[in-house]
Amino acid sequence: MFMKIIDLTNKYIKHILDDGNLASYEKSYPALFQHYFRYWAKRKYFSKTLNKAEVKKRLNLIEPRLSRVEKKISKFGFNISFLKIVLFVGQSTSNGHVFRENKEFIVWIPIEAYSTPLQVDVFITHEIIHSLHYLKSPDFYFNNFNEKRLISRQLITEGVATYLTKHIIKITQAKALWADFLSKEKTKIWFRECQQKEKELFKFVLKNFSSINPEISLFYAKNPRNIYEFRAGYFVGLKLLDRIVKTKKINPKNLLGIPKKKFKKMILEELRLGSVSC
Protein backbone atom coordinates (compact mmCIF):
# COMPACT_ATOMS: atom_id res chain seq x y z
CA MET A 1 0.00 0.00 0.00
CA PHE A 2 0.87 3.69 -0.30
CA MET A 3 1.19 5.43 -3.63
CA LYS A 4 4.48 7.03 -4.57
CA ILE A 5 4.17 10.79 -4.10
CA ILE A 6 6.49 12.96 -6.20
CA ASP A 7 6.56 16.45 -4.68
CA LEU A 8 7.86 19.19 -6.99
CA THR A 9 6.75 22.11 -4.84
CA ASN A 10 10.24 22.78 -3.50
CA LYS A 11 11.38 23.02 -7.12
CA TYR A 12 8.66 25.61 -7.72
CA ILE A 13 9.84 27.63 -4.72
CA LYS A 14 13.47 27.48 -5.79
CA HIS A 15 13.15 27.86 -9.56
CA ILE A 16 10.07 30.07 -9.87
CA LEU A 17 9.69 32.06 -6.64
CA ASP A 18 13.40 32.49 -5.87
CA ASP A 19 15.04 32.41 -9.29
CA GLY A 20 12.24 33.16 -11.77
CA ASN A 21 13.58 30.38 -14.01
CA LEU A 22 10.81 28.41 -15.71
CA ALA A 23 13.25 26.33 -17.77
CA SER A 24 14.85 24.96 -14.60
CA TYR A 25 11.41 24.23 -13.14
CA GLU A 26 10.51 22.24 -16.25
CA LYS A 27 13.71 20.21 -15.95
CA SER A 28 12.51 18.93 -12.57
CA TYR A 29 10.15 16.63 -14.50
CA PRO A 30 10.37 17.14 -18.30
CA ALA A 31 7.70 14.55 -19.22
CA LEU A 32 5.14 16.19 -16.94
CA PHE A 33 5.72 19.72 -18.18
CA GLN A 34 5.86 18.67 -21.82
CA HIS A 35 2.39 17.18 -21.39
CA TYR A 36 1.09 20.04 -19.24
CA PHE A 37 2.19 22.82 -21.57
CA ARG A 38 1.01 20.98 -24.64
CA TYR A 39 -2.53 20.21 -23.50
CA TRP A 40 -3.46 22.19 -20.39
CA ALA A 41 -1.63 25.51 -20.09
CA LYS A 42 0.34 27.97 -22.20
CA ARG A 43 4.01 28.13 -21.36
CA LYS A 44 4.34 31.76 -22.45
CA TYR A 45 1.73 32.84 -19.91
CA PHE A 46 3.26 30.99 -16.96
CA SER A 47 3.35 33.14 -13.82
CA LYS A 48 3.61 32.81 -10.05
CA THR A 49 0.30 31.50 -8.69
CA LEU A 50 1.24 30.74 -5.07
CA ASN A 51 3.70 32.27 -2.64
CA LYS A 52 5.73 30.18 -0.17
CA ALA A 53 3.12 30.37 2.59
CA GLU A 54 0.37 29.37 0.16
CA VAL A 55 2.40 26.41 -1.11
CA LYS A 56 2.82 25.16 2.46
CA LYS A 57 -0.88 25.69 3.19
CA ARG A 58 -2.00 23.69 0.13
CA LEU A 59 0.46 20.88 0.87
CA ASN A 60 -0.76 20.72 4.47
CA LEU A 61 -4.28 20.37 3.11
CA ILE A 62 -3.56 17.77 0.43
CA GLU A 63 -0.85 15.46 1.75
CA PRO A 64 -2.63 14.19 4.90
CA ARG A 65 -5.71 13.28 2.86
CA LEU A 66 -3.90 11.20 0.24
CA SER A 67 -3.74 8.14 2.51
CA ARG A 68 -7.44 8.58 3.22
CA VAL A 69 -8.17 8.68 -0.51
CA GLU A 70 -6.02 5.61 -1.09
CA LYS A 71 -7.76 3.64 1.66
CA LYS A 72 -11.21 4.40 0.25
CA ILE A 73 -10.17 3.39 -3.26
CA SER A 74 -8.53 0.21 -1.95
CA LYS A 75 -11.59 -0.64 0.12
CA PHE A 76 -13.70 -0.32 -3.02
CA GLY A 77 -11.51 -2.97 -4.66
CA PHE A 78 -8.82 -1.14 -6.65
CA ASN A 79 -5.13 -1.59 -5.86
CA ILE A 80 -3.28 1.68 -6.37
CA SER A 81 -0.14 0.97 -4.36
CA PHE A 82 1.91 1.04 -7.58
CA LEU A 83 0.55 4.44 -8.64
CA LYS A 84 2.63 7.60 -8.92
CA ILE A 85 1.11 10.98 -8.19
CA VAL A 86 2.91 14.27 -8.85
CA LEU A 87 2.22 17.36 -6.77
CA PHE A 88 3.32 20.64 -8.36
CA VAL A 89 2.27 24.25 -8.78
CA GLY A 90 0.68 25.04 -12.13
CA GLN A 91 -1.45 27.76 -13.66
CA SER A 92 -4.94 27.16 -12.23
CA THR A 93 -6.15 25.79 -15.56
CA SER A 94 -7.13 22.30 -14.37
CA ASN A 95 -7.70 20.15 -11.29
CA GLY A 96 -5.26 17.65 -12.78
CA HIS A 97 -5.27 14.64 -15.03
CA VAL A 98 -2.86 11.92 -16.17
CA PHE A 99 0.15 11.72 -18.46
CA ARG A 100 1.79 8.64 -19.91
CA GLU A 101 5.45 7.95 -19.27
CA ASN A 102 6.63 4.73 -20.87
CA LYS A 103 4.00 2.21 -19.74
CA GLU A 104 2.86 4.15 -16.68
CA PHE A 105 -0.10 6.51 -16.39
CA ILE A 106 0.95 9.08 -13.81
CA VAL A 107 -1.50 11.35 -12.00
CA TRP A 108 -0.58 15.03 -11.87
CA ILE A 109 -2.13 17.39 -9.33
CA PRO A 110 -1.63 21.18 -9.47
CA ILE A 111 -1.98 22.10 -5.81
CA GLU A 112 -3.22 25.64 -6.47
CA ALA A 113 -6.52 24.13 -7.68
CA TYR A 114 -7.39 22.69 -4.24
CA SER A 115 -8.72 24.75 -1.37
CA THR A 116 -10.95 22.43 0.72
CA PRO A 117 -10.78 18.86 2.07
CA LEU A 118 -13.81 17.81 -0.01
CA GLN A 119 -12.16 19.05 -3.22
CA VAL A 120 -9.10 16.96 -2.40
CA ASP A 121 -11.16 13.85 -1.72
CA VAL A 122 -13.40 14.20 -4.78
CA PHE A 123 -11.11 15.49 -7.49
CA ILE A 124 -7.97 13.53 -6.61
CA THR A 125 -10.04 10.34 -6.46
CA HIS A 126 -11.44 11.34 -9.87
CA GLU A 127 -7.95 11.77 -11.38
CA ILE A 128 -6.74 8.47 -9.89
CA ILE A 129 -9.68 6.69 -11.54
CA HIS A 130 -8.60 8.20 -14.86
CA SER A 131 -5.16 6.64 -14.35
CA LEU A 132 -6.62 3.22 -13.55
CA HIS A 133 -8.97 3.46 -16.54
CA TYR A 134 -6.17 4.32 -18.97
CA LEU A 135 -4.02 1.55 -17.55
CA LYS A 136 -6.79 -1.02 -17.98
CA SER A 137 -8.04 0.37 -21.32
CA PRO A 138 -5.24 2.44 -22.90
CA ASP A 139 -7.33 3.11 -26.02
CA PHE A 140 -9.15 5.76 -23.99
CA TYR A 141 -5.97 7.80 -23.49
CA PHE A 142 -5.25 10.62 -25.94
CA ASN A 143 -2.11 11.19 -27.99
CA ASN A 144 -3.05 14.39 -29.81
CA PHE A 145 -5.53 17.25 -29.63
CA ASN A 146 -8.13 15.56 -31.81
CA GLU A 147 -8.23 12.51 -29.55
CA LYS A 148 -8.31 14.71 -26.45
CA ARG A 149 -11.27 16.75 -27.76
CA LEU A 150 -13.29 13.79 -29.04
CA ILE A 151 -16.66 14.07 -27.32
CA SER A 152 -17.25 10.31 -27.10
CA ARG A 153 -13.90 9.77 -25.36
CA GLN A 154 -14.47 12.58 -22.89
CA LEU A 155 -18.03 11.44 -22.21
CA ILE A 156 -16.96 7.92 -21.30
CA THR A 157 -13.77 8.71 -19.38
CA GLU A 158 -15.30 11.57 -17.39
CA GLY A 159 -18.49 9.60 -16.85
CA VAL A 160 -16.57 6.63 -15.48
CA ALA A 161 -14.36 8.78 -13.23
CA THR A 162 -17.33 10.74 -11.85
CA TYR A 163 -19.51 7.66 -11.37
CA LEU A 164 -16.83 5.66 -9.56
CA THR A 165 -15.79 8.65 -7.43
CA LYS A 166 -19.41 9.00 -6.29
CA HIS A 167 -19.56 5.38 -5.18
CA ILE A 168 -16.05 5.16 -3.74
CA ILE A 169 -16.53 8.18 -1.49
CA LYS A 170 -20.27 7.58 -1.07
CA ILE A 171 -21.40 11.11 -1.88
CA THR A 172 -24.27 12.71 -3.78
CA GLN A 173 -24.28 13.23 -7.52
CA ALA A 174 -23.88 16.97 -7.03
CA LYS A 175 -20.80 16.53 -4.83
CA ALA A 176 -19.30 14.01 -7.25
CA LEU A 177 -19.67 16.64 -9.98
CA TRP A 178 -18.62 19.77 -8.09
CA ALA A 179 -17.37 18.85 -4.58
CA ASP A 180 -17.87 22.24 -2.88
CA PHE A 181 -16.33 24.29 -5.67
CA LEU A 182 -19.69 26.04 -6.11
CA SER A 183 -21.91 27.13 -3.24
CA LYS A 184 -24.76 24.80 -2.32
CA GLU A 185 -27.27 27.18 -3.86
CA LYS A 186 -25.36 27.57 -7.13
CA THR A 187 -24.83 23.81 -7.35
CA LYS A 188 -28.54 23.26 -6.78
CA ILE A 189 -29.47 25.73 -9.53
CA TRP A 190 -26.96 24.20 -11.97
CA PHE A 191 -28.08 20.64 -11.22
CA ARG A 192 -31.76 21.54 -11.56
CA GLU A 193 -31.15 23.18 -14.95
CA CYS A 194 -29.23 20.12 -16.18
CA GLN A 195 -32.10 17.89 -15.09
CA GLN A 196 -34.67 20.11 -16.78
CA LYS A 197 -32.66 20.08 -20.01
CA GLU A 198 -31.59 16.44 -19.79
CA LYS A 199 -33.30 15.31 -23.00
CA GLU A 200 -31.95 18.37 -24.81
CA LEU A 201 -28.44 17.66 -23.52
CA PHE A 202 -28.66 14.01 -24.57
CA LYS A 203 -29.70 15.07 -28.08
CA PHE A 204 -26.82 17.55 -28.28
CA VAL A 205 -24.27 14.96 -27.16
CA LEU A 206 -25.70 12.36 -29.53
CA LYS A 207 -25.45 14.81 -32.43
CA ASN A 208 -21.84 15.67 -31.53
CA PHE A 209 -20.75 12.23 -30.34
CA SER A 210 -17.91 11.98 -32.88
CA SER A 211 -17.05 15.68 -32.89
CA ILE A 212 -13.60 17.11 -32.18
CA ASN A 213 -14.83 20.70 -32.42
CA PRO A 214 -12.81 22.79 -29.91
CA GLU A 215 -15.73 25.22 -29.63
CA ILE A 216 -17.84 22.62 -27.82
CA SER A 217 -17.36 23.41 -24.14
CA LEU A 218 -19.38 20.70 -22.38
CA PHE A 219 -16.38 19.68 -20.29
CA TYR A 220 -15.13 23.16 -19.43
CA ALA A 221 -16.15 25.71 -16.80
CA LYS A 222 -16.15 28.72 -19.10
CA ASN A 223 -19.54 30.36 -18.63
CA PRO A 224 -21.65 29.81 -15.48
CA ARG A 225 -24.66 31.35 -17.23
CA ASN A 226 -24.76 28.58 -19.84
CA ILE A 227 -24.67 24.91 -18.81
CA TYR A 228 -23.44 23.98 -22.31
CA GLU A 229 -20.28 25.88 -21.42
CA PHE A 230 -20.20 24.92 -17.76
CA ARG A 231 -19.44 21.21 -17.29
CA ALA A 232 -22.79 19.79 -18.40
CA GLY A 233 -20.85 17.02 -20.13
CA TYR A 234 -19.95 15.60 -16.71
CA PHE A 235 -23.64 15.54 -15.78
CA VAL A 236 -24.49 13.64 -18.98
CA GLY A 237 -21.60 11.22 -18.48
CA LEU A 238 -22.63 10.47 -14.91
CA LYS A 239 -26.26 9.95 -15.91
CA LEU A 240 -25.27 7.60 -18.74
CA LEU A 241 -22.99 5.52 -16.54
CA ASP A 242 -25.68 5.22 -13.90
CA ARG A 243 -28.18 4.00 -16.50
CA ILE A 244 -25.70 1.55 -18.07
CA VAL A 245 -24.67 -0.01 -14.74
CA LYS A 246 -28.31 -0.50 -13.78
CA THR A 247 -29.69 -1.72 -17.13
CA LYS A 248 -26.72 -3.94 -18.02
CA LYS A 249 -26.23 -5.09 -14.41
CA ILE A 250 -22.52 -4.32 -14.56
CA ASN A 251 -20.27 -4.54 -11.51
CA PRO A 252 -18.92 -0.97 -11.21
CA LYS A 253 -15.40 -2.33 -10.67
CA ASN A 254 -15.54 -3.86 -14.16
CA LEU A 255 -16.23 -0.55 -15.92
CA LEU A 256 -12.52 0.12 -16.35
CA GLY A 257 -11.98 -2.95 -18.51
CA ILE A 258 -14.87 -2.58 -20.97
CA PRO A 259 -13.41 -2.40 -24.50
CA LYS A 260 -13.75 0.96 -26.22
CA LYS A 261 -15.90 -0.29 -29.09
CA LYS A 262 -18.34 -2.03 -26.74
CA PHE A 263 -18.46 0.96 -24.40
CA LYS A 264 -19.26 3.37 -27.22
CA LYS A 265 -22.06 1.10 -28.41
CA MET A 266 -23.63 1.00 -24.95
CA ILE A 267 -23.30 4.75 -24.54
CA LEU A 268 -24.92 5.42 -27.92
CA GLU A 269 -27.83 3.12 -27.05
CA GLU A 270 -28.47 5.02 -23.83
CA LEU A 271 -28.08 8.38 -25.52
CA ARG A 272 -30.71 7.46 -28.11
CA LEU A 273 -33.08 6.20 -25.45
CA GLY A 274 -32.46 9.17 -23.21
CA SER A 275 -32.96 11.72 -25.96
CA VAL A 276 -36.55 10.55 -26.41
CA SER A 277 -37.54 9.28 -22.97
CA CYS A 278 -35.98 11.57 -20.37
What does this structure look like?
The protein has 278 residues and is an alpha/beta fold. Helices cover 57% and strands 8% of the residues. It has twelve helices and four strands, in the order βααααβββαααααααα. It has helices at 9-18, 22-27, 30-39, 52-76, 117-136, 145-149, 151-169, 173-178, 184-196, 198-207, 232-248, 260-277, and strands at 4-7, 84-88, 97-101, 104-110. It has a four-stranded mixed beta sheet, sandwiched between helices. A hairpin with a 2-residue loop joins β3 and β4 (104-110). The radius of gyration is 18 Å and the shape is globular.
Summarize this structure as a short list of keywords or feature phrases.
278 residues, alpha/beta, 4-stranded mixed sheet, 12 helices, 4 strands
Shape: globular
Gyration radius, rounded: 18 Å
Topology as a string of helices (H) and strands (E) = EHHHHEEEHHHHHHHH
List unreliable stretches of 5+ residues.
none
Percent strand equals 5-15%
The count of helical stretches stands at 12
Distance separating the two termini:
43 Å
Strands, total number: 4
Order of strands across the biggest sheet?
A: 1-2-4-3
Class by alpha and beta content: alpha/beta
Largest sheet: 4 strands, mixed
Helical content band? 55-70%
Overall average residue pLDDT:
97
